[in-house]
Each structure stands twice: as C-alpha cells, then as structure tokens.
C-alpha cells in the first residue's frame, strides 16, 4: 500500500495519475496547505521541504521497513521502477523520458507557478512580473508544441513525462495561454484528458477542492511568507508526537 500525502494541486495530481494508471493500491492522506498542515512534525519527517506530495511505501523492494519519499519527480521515478511501468529500461528511451521529466520539474512547473502567483495570488499587481512569467510560460508551451509535432507523447510513448507535464497545462487559461495557438499541444492535451485513469486521478481529490476567489491574509502568510525561522517556530509550537 502506498500512502500519498496530497493536496489537489498540479504536483499532487501527478502522483494520483501514476497510481491510477498503474493500478497501484493507495490511500490519500490529505495535507491542507492553506491551513499549514505541511508544517506538522510528522509530515516534516517525511517531507523536510514542507511541500507535498510525499509518499510512504509500506512494502518497498528491499523489505527494510517503510520507505518515504518527497519531490514529485523522484516519486514518479521510484513508482515507475517499482512497477516496471511508464519508464523504459533501454538507455535512449529512458533518458528521453527523464530529460522531459526534468524539463517539467525545473522549468515548466516553477515558471507556471510564478505565473499563477503574480497573475492570481499576489496582493498587488506587478506588470513586469506578470509579463515576465506569462511570456516565459508561453515560450515553454512553444517548446512542448514543437516536441509534440514529432511524437504522439512527450517522450515518444506515454510515460511519467506526460504525467508530470499534463497537470501544469490544465490551468492554461489562468496562465494566460490559448491552446488554440499550440495545435500539437492541444491534440496531446485532449488525448491525456480523455484517459480514464487521468479522470479517476482528478476525481480522487475532488472532494478536497474548495471554491476560492482569493486567499485570506492568514493563508497567504502560510503559503507565501515562509522563512527558515517560520518553519522552525512551527516545529516548536507543535506538541511532541
């Protein structure tokens, strides 16, 4: 059984997509990031970066007790190797997948995340920051569109690269992007969205979603005001486990 520490965000959806596609039994342990549950000591033991997703595998291959992992890219690689699915073993094919996975975790995710922040969540509108990240997101969409003109999926065959990229394209309208400008990306996006496992993955977290028009001051401080001292203080405030 895989315990998935999760909230319905793009990075959280990556992991539910894999688990549903691979048919791996799992349970969701919600981590409400707006309430600061990512600072609980028991969660920090699993995810010291106080970010979700994270997993605990009760039955790792080495049979040396439960294995915990944080960082969505590392989790996808681990699950792919554990199940023998969605990550080829042949060298060239494997590294095609890994290079696009790292492209997402090092490029598309951070840039789209900053796009979301300055366009939707910042308490003040900063035109330079908004334009900077909307334009960089647009450039990355172009990279992806050109790649998908060459292959049906991001790395050739359907893989963990697609699972990593797709959730960051779902909010394309909020990112100021028009999929009609990227026909190959649009074709791929619609193909992924139609997969039953992807639909189940999004349904798995639907009950945790809540409508919001913005963040309260407290939520904004929890999500966007973190410092090393703040995390340390949160740990001290919590009662011993």
From TrEMBL:
Domain GST C-terminal: 90-215
Pfam entry (one): GST_N
Superkingdom assignment: Bacteria
GST N-terminal domain segment(s): 1-87
InterPro entries given in the database record: Glutathione-S-Trfase_C-like, Glutathione-S-Trfase_C_sf, Glutathione_S-Trfase, Glutathione_S-Trfase_N, GST_C, Thioredoxin-like_sf
Gene3D superfamilies linked to this entry: 1.20.1050.10, Glutaredoxin
Family, per entry: Belongs to the GST superfamily.
Protein known as: Thiol:disulfide oxidoreductase
Species, as recorded: Methylocystis heyeri
């Amino acid at each position: 059984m895989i315990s998935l520490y999760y909230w319905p965000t793009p990075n959280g959806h990556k992991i539910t997509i894999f688990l549903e596609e691979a048919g791996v039994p799992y349970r969701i342990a919600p981590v409400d990031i707006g309430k600061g549950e990512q600072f609980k000591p028991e969660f920090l033991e699993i995810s010291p970066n106080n970010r979700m997703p994270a997993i605990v595998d009760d039955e790792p291959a080495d049979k040396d007790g439960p294995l915990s992992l944080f960082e969505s890219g590392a989790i996808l690689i681990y699950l792919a190797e554990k199940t023998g699915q969605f990550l080829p073993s042949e060298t060239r094919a494997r590294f095609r997948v890994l290079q696009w996975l790292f492209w997402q975790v090092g490029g598309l995710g951070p840039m789209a995340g900053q796009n979301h922040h300055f366009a939707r969540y910042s308490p003040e509108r900063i035109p330079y920051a908004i334009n900077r990240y909307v334009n960089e997101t647009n450039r990355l969409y172009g990279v992806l569109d050109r790649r998908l003109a060459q292959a049906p999926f991001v790395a050739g065959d359907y893989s963990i690269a697609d699972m990593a990229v797709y959730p960051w394209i779902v909010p394309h309208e909020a990112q100021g992007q028009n999929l009609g400008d990227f026909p190959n990306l649009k074709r791929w996006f619609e193909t992924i969205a139609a997969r039953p496992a992807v639909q189940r993955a999004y349904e798995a977290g639907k009950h945790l979603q809540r409508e919001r028009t913005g963040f309260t001051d407290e939520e904004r401080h929890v999500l966007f005001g973190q410092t090393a001292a703040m995390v340390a203080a949160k740990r001290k405030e919590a009662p011993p486990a």
